[in-house]
Each structure stands twice: as C-alpha cells, then as structure tokens.
Amino acid sequence: MGGKKIEQVKGDIEITGVDFAYPSRPNTNVMTDFSLDIKSGQQIALVGPSGSGKSTIVGLLEKFYTPNKGTIKIDGVDVAELDPMWLHRNCLGIVSQEPVLFAGTIKYNIAYALLGPNDSVESGKVVTMEQVENAAKRANAHSFIMDLPEKYDTILGEKGVSLSGGQKQRIAIARALLQDPKILLLDEATSALDTESERLVQAALDELMKGRTTICIAHRLTTVINSDVICVLVKGVMKEKGTHSELIKIPQGIYRNLAEKQMIFTEEKVEDVEDVMDVLVDDENIVEVENDEE
Q1: Can you point out the beta strands (E) in 133-226?
Q2: Where is each ABC transporter domain found (predicted)?
C-alpha cells in the first residue's frame, strides 16, 4: 500500500470544506461543506438523527472513503496521503457498538493491535503477558477474565459470541489501551448496554480517553455532557456547536430541544439521543435523507 507516516502524532484533526456522497447515491450529499477543527486532546461529540453524517465523518477519517471535495488532515498531513496500515495500527484506536473480536484467545484479542502476522504473546518480543493484563485491569476486564475457566487462554467464539456485550466492549477497550493511540474513535460504544454494563464500560472509556483526541458518536446525553465540543448535525450540515452548557442556552436550539425532549420522554424509556433527534427532525419538518450507510 505505502504512504506517509507521521513520526510523532499529536492528534490535531482539521476537516475543511468536505462534501461527500456515497457511490451508490452519487447525487445525494451526506456531507455538505463540512468543516471542523479538533485540537490535540479534545473530546468531541457528534450528535444528530440517523443519516446526519456522524459515522460518515469517522469513515472518512479512517480512510474508508474519499471526500468528493475538501480535505481531512491529521497534524497537517492529508489523510489521503497516509499509509492506511500505519493509520489503523499506530494512529487511530476504535471502539464501536459491536467491537471486532476474533475466534482466538482473550490474550490474543487484546494484543492483536500490536502483533504482526508472525508474532505471538508467548514470545514476549512485541507485547508481554504483563502488558496484556495491565491493559485489561485498566479496562475493568481483568476480574471477569480471571473468573473464566481458562482465564486469558479462553477461546472466544466467532465475534466473541461467548461474551456479553459489556465484556466484549471491555476487551476492545483493553486492546485500545494497549495500542495507545493518539486519536480515539468511539462509535456508539455504550448504546446497546444495560445500565450496569454501561457504568463499567464508561469508566473504562474515561480511562482510555485521558490525554487523547477523541471523537464520540453519541446516543446518550450522559456520554455527551462533559465533551469539550458538541457538534449537532442534520443532513450532513453543522447546525450547532458548543459545550453542553452553551447549547442548552440557545432559545429554540436543536440541542436544547433534544435535552428537553429526552427528559419529557423519560417515562416512555426513550434514552437514545438518535431516536429523540429523529423526532425533533420530524417536528421541525426537516425531510431526513434515507441513508443506511450513514
């Protein structure tokens, strides 16, 4: 593949004038003239209805797609020029709603981010068992792993089917902690968890986010409130941007209405920000773009 590598990543991200449409619908823009500057160490939350472009921003940063117009840069270097293998192994850490786990041992799944095709944890050359266990402890995963019959040698089924959702998330977080990326991408990382699992996973995420540039696709206000910047997107356009305290002060603001609606809907157990945003978009007569590739 090849491409550039950044010797010492700081984690500054600059998105400038990005337009993007999926190849399957070239005439329907998902992003329109989107710009966002993220400074090293900032925590950014992306909030919006389905089809608003939240996951598209992450996909563009991961180099899965190329903008039709505009640029995305990390530390001043265009992502299009970066070596994709280096980008994913040395720069970006990802924790998604359904983490990618393999049908190997738990220790392999945690160490995977650092292992090459011919490496193993047993060799201790690339990563040691002590490092794996330390990462698991920081991710609140060590205790449940030690309760398993084979502990770190437990073989996971395909996609980690033998673990609960919260356990899979904590394995993925342990992997990201071991990887130690400068930029962290959280894609609905706690949206499918029960309350107790969410508490444990959120505590592990808080540990993981320390000192890193973080972009979080947020579905619950509890994961948004403490962000440095909250970006409210509708149909690929930035409608509002600011802190939680700033946005709730905007009269008739989208985010303020979102917060109010979520509180109103509490009795009906609607806790998902995206669900509420969909209602808000409908309330405001904004026709939402059908987009299963968000």
Answers
A1: 183-187, 213-217
A2: 13-260
